[in-house]
Amino acid sequence: MTIDTHNIDMSKTVDLGDGRIGVHVGTMSSIEVAPIMEVARKNGGHILYAATSIEQQLEGILMLYFMGPFIKHDDRRQVFEMEILQSSSMSYSAKKELVLKIVSDNNLLDGEVKNQLQTQLKKIMEWRNAFAHGKMQYDNIAGCFIKHYSGRQQKLDLNDGYWEKVEQNFKECNASLKEVLDKLVCRAQ
Description:
The protein is α+β, with helices and mostly antiparallel strands.
């Protein structure tokens, strides 16, 4: 709750004893805040799910690039997928950098689209980390936001503009990764 200390009605004081007084500053209505926070939490869940889907696309690109198309069961392919791609030792960041290197070295996307993909993947990683590790809060003036640490303390205002930017970023990123995968499939045939 944000309190404007310059506009407190001192006529509504209460004696707390021991020379202390209390001032009624109003009430915080969870009836108004709860639905807003619930929508933000649900949207945060969508971000986590969508980020996982993007990470799976990165894994698919890496699998195709390093192991070729699936033809039949191959123990080496299964070990690569389970013990490398899906292991905790290969982070989203590492997959992102490796895919970007493959895209660049093989000219799989035009310059501007390639640069946008790099930016999009970085934003997705930041948003995922913010919702996975940050603290969602509500301020009656600023609205709903999430505080998180990414190199320094940061704050994301969870307003309509933010959600629209997130949705657009995920759609464009998804389309670019699909284009990369399609080009790799064509080259593998």
